[in-house]
Amino acid sequence: MEKLDEKSGATLVALPPVMSAHGVRRSFGAVHAVVDANLEVAPGTVTALIGPNGCGKTTLMLMLAGLLLPDDGEISVGGADPRKDSAAVRNAIGWMPDQLGAWDNLTCLQTLTLVGRAYRLPKAVARERGAEVLGTVHLSEFADRPARVLSRGQKQRLSLARALMNDPQVLMLDEPANGLDPRSRVELRQLVRGFAAQGRAVLVSSHVLSELDEMVDEAVFMSKGKTLGADTDAMVADARTRYRIESLDDSVLRDAFAHWDMPFEEVDGGLVIRAQNKEHAASILEALVKGGAKVHRFGPFGSALEQTYMAMNEERR
Amino acid sequence: MTTTAERATPTTSAAPRGNPWWPSWRGVGLVTRIELTRRRPTTKGYIFYGILVAAILGLGILVAALAPPGKTSTPMELVLILVLGAGLLIAPSLSSTSINGDSSEGVLAPMQMTRLTAGDLALGKLLASWLFAVAVLITTTPLLVYAFSRSGWHWYELIAVLGAILFAVLTFTAIGLAWSALAARAVASVSLAHLTTGFLVLGTLVIYAFAMPLVSENVTVTDRYVDYGTLTPDEQEAYEAGELDYSTVQCTEQTYETSVVHTDTIAWLLLLNPVVVIGEAAPVVNPNTYEEDDRAAPGAFALMHQAVGGAQLGSQGAPLGYDECGDPNSQAWSDQWDQQQEEQALFPRNPWLGLALQAVLLVGAMGIVIRRLRVPYKKLRAGTRVA
Ligand SMILES: Nc1ncnc2c1ncn2[C@@H]1O[C@H](COP(=O)(O)OP(=O)(O)O)[C@@H](O)[C@H]1O
Ligand SMILES: [Mg+2]
Predict the structure, then answer these.
(1) Are residues B128 and B178 both part of a single domain?
(2) Strand ranges for chain B from DSSP E
(3) CB–CB of B116/B31 below 8 Å?
(4) Residues B194 and B386: beta-carbon distance below 8 Å
(5) What is the pTM of this model?
(6) Which CATH architecture has domain A2-228?
(7) I need a surface site. Which of A11, A242, B2, B136 has the fewest CB within 10 A?
(8) What is the value of ipTM here, to two decimals?
C-alpha cells in the first residue's frame, strides 16, 4: 500500500509484506462486521490496528489468522492463501485472542507442553520450549500452578506464551494490553519490539493508544468495518511533527515565533509548533534558549495515535 | 534482517499444505489425553461416580444373592443393563458440552490454530467422553466375572454383548458431540442429546405401540362347545362329572370377530431400539431344553429376544378357536402355544438392523462434528463468536 511505500520505502522494497489483505469483507447475517479492509504488514515491523469497539478489528484478525472465511477479498500470509492453504497460514501465525481461555485443571507448563505437542514438537522439546516461553512472559514461578488460580493479567500472559509456542513468523495480538499492570505493559512492549527485531511481523490491536505510540511502526485505523488509508496516515505523520513547548514566560516564545514567521497553536499552559524532524526540533529549541526563553518543557505533543484517533471523528458503534 | 536467516530452523515439521481434516493417531491420542486430564472428575464427580458404581454393584450382588442356587443369568444381565444405562447417561452428557462449552470458554479456537486437524479434535473428544463410560464397566469387572460364572453363557457371547453395549454408548456419545457442535448453548445440546437417546430407547417402543392398530386385521374365530340345553338329564350328569362321550352329543358353533396384529410388518421398529440390539446380541436360550443345553433358564435378554422374535413372526392367520367337542383338554391349543414359544425363542438373532442404524448415526454424527470443527469457518453456530 501507498502508506508503507511512502514511510519507509527503502526497507520495504527489499522485504515484501509477510501478511496482506485487500478488499476484505465479512458480514454475519445483517451485521457488516468488516466492509473493506486493506492492510500490509512487513517483516520486522509492528503494525497497530486501531479503532473503536465493534469496528471489526477482531473479525479482521480472525480472517487473517485463517479462522474465519472472508466473504470477499484477498488475503495472503507468508505467501499462503487461507482459502486454499489454511493450515499453512495458521501454522505461520501466533495468535493471542482477546477472549481469555485456559484449561482450568492444567498447570501453566502442562498447558504449554500440550500446545507445543499440538504443534507437533517432540515431548521433551515442547516441555523445554514451554519453560523458556514461560520465562519470556515472566510466569516461571507459576509453571506448576493450575491455570485457574491465575489472575487476569497472568492469564493474559499465559495466552501470549501460548501464541509464542510455535515460533511464529507473524504474531497477532488482539488487545493484549487489557488487564496488564504497568510493568507488564512495558515488558509486553519490549517483547513485541524484540520480536520485530528478529525480523518477524507483529499486528497488534489495542485501545491503549499512548502505549502503542512507542511500540508501533505503522498504524492502521479502522472505522465501521473499513480501514482508513492515506488520510489517517497523513494525520499520524502530521501529529508526529507537533511539539509542545512550556516556558516560564510564553510571551517570549510568541515574539520569537512571530519573528520567525512560524505558525503556532495555544494550548493549556503552552504552545504547540510543528517541527519537520528531530534536527529541526533541536534547532528550534536551541534558538529559543539562545533568544532568552526560559523553556522548562519541550517534547512531542501527546500521543500521535490518540490525536489521530480523536480527530477521526467517527462515532462508536 | 540477519536474524531471520539465523533463527533456529523452526522445530515444527514442514509447512502443511491445503487444509487437512483427517485424523492421525498422534493427534487423536493427544486430544484424548488433553480432554481426559482437563475433565478429570472433581471431588463431587468422584462421589457421583462412586455412588453410581456402588448402586450397580449393590443391585447386582443383591440379585445374585437372592437368586436360587444354580445357573442364573439374571445378575449378569442386570449388571450389563445398568452399565449400558450408566454409559448412555454419562458419556453423552460429557460429549454434549464438549464443543460449545470449549468454544464459550475460549479454549477451542486456540486448539484449532495448532496443527491438530478437525478429525483429531472430533475423535479425541469422542474417545475421551466414551472412556469415562468404559471406566464404569471396568469398575464392575469383579462382579461381572462372578455373575458370568453362573450365567451359562460362553465367554465369546459375553464379549459380543459387551461389544454391542460399548458400540451403542459410542454412538450416542457421537450424537451428543454432534449436538454440541450444532447448538450454541450447552443447555440445549445436553437436552437434545438425552432426547435423542430417549427417542431411540423409548420412542421406538411408543411408535411400535401406536403402529399396531394400523396393521391389525379382523378375523373370525369359531368356538365349538357342547349345547347344554339339548343334553338329556343322564348326559348332563355325565357332562358335569366329566365323563361325557363327546362323539355322541350335539355341538354348537359360535363365531366371533377378533383382531390379529401383523407385527411382522412393524417389528423393524423394535429392532432399531438400542436395548433390543443388546438383547439380540445375547445368546439364544431354548425354553424347553435349556437344562440339557447346559444353560440357565431364559433370563431377561432371552425373554426379550423371544418377545421380539414373536413380533417378527407376527400372527400367522386366525388364532385357533376353542373346541370343546373335538379337543376337550385343549391339547391342540396348548401344543400350538408350546410350539409358538419355541419358534419365537429360537427365532434367528437379528441385531444387524439396529447395529446398521447405529453405524449410520455414528458416521453421520462424526461427519457433522468434523465439518463443524473445520476452520476457516464459513458459517458460525448462530449467536456465537469465534473468539
Ligand atoms: N459471530 C458474530 N455474529 C454476529 N455479529 C458479530 C459476530 N462477530 C462480530 N460481530 C459484530 O461485528 C462487529 C465487529 O465486531 P468485532 O470484530 O469483534 O469488533 P472489535 O474487535 O473491533 O471490537 C460488531 O458489531 C459485532 O457485534
Ligand atoms: Mg475485539
Answers:
(1) yes
(2) 216-226, 251-261
(3) yes
(4) no
(5) 0.88
(6) 3-Layer(aba) Sandwich (3.40)
(7) B2
(8) 0.84
